[in-house]
Design a protein that fits this description.
This protein is mostly helical. The longest helix has 23 residues.
Length: 106
């Protein structure tokens, strides 16, 4: 079964992106590129649901992940999500998020 760009797809991407944004921030704090974490989580998520992801599904996840990670930094609850980060780390999260959005919005 292949996913399409339906409401189900959006729910999958938004829920996973919500969780993954925390892992992205963790990886960045530890100086580790988050790509392996993102890929492993997505593959496990699809496998657990017996679903096959396509390029559009992957793109939507990545876009939403970029947004969710940036939102952790600038949204109304930023003090809760990222208040513990110093300015250097906040800049790293901002750079990663905006690069992610830029890459996947093309």
């Amino acid at each position: 079964m292949h996913l399409t760009t339906s409401g189900v797809l959006f729910q999958w991407c938004s829920g996973l992106a919500y969780l993954l944004s925390e892992y992205v921030i963790r990886d960045l704090r530890f100086g580790v590129g988050p790509e392996a974490t993102i890929t492993a989580a997505w593959e496990g998520y699809c496998q657990a649901r017996d679903r096959h992801a396509n390029a559009e599904t992957w793109r939507r996840l990545r876009l939403h992940l970029g947004f969710q990670t940036l939102y952790r930094l600038v949204g109304p609850s930023r003090k809760v999500w990222t208040g513990h980060l110093d300015d250097v780390m906040k800049d790293a999260v901002r750079r990663w998020s905006t690069a992610e959005l830029s890459a996947w919005l093309q």
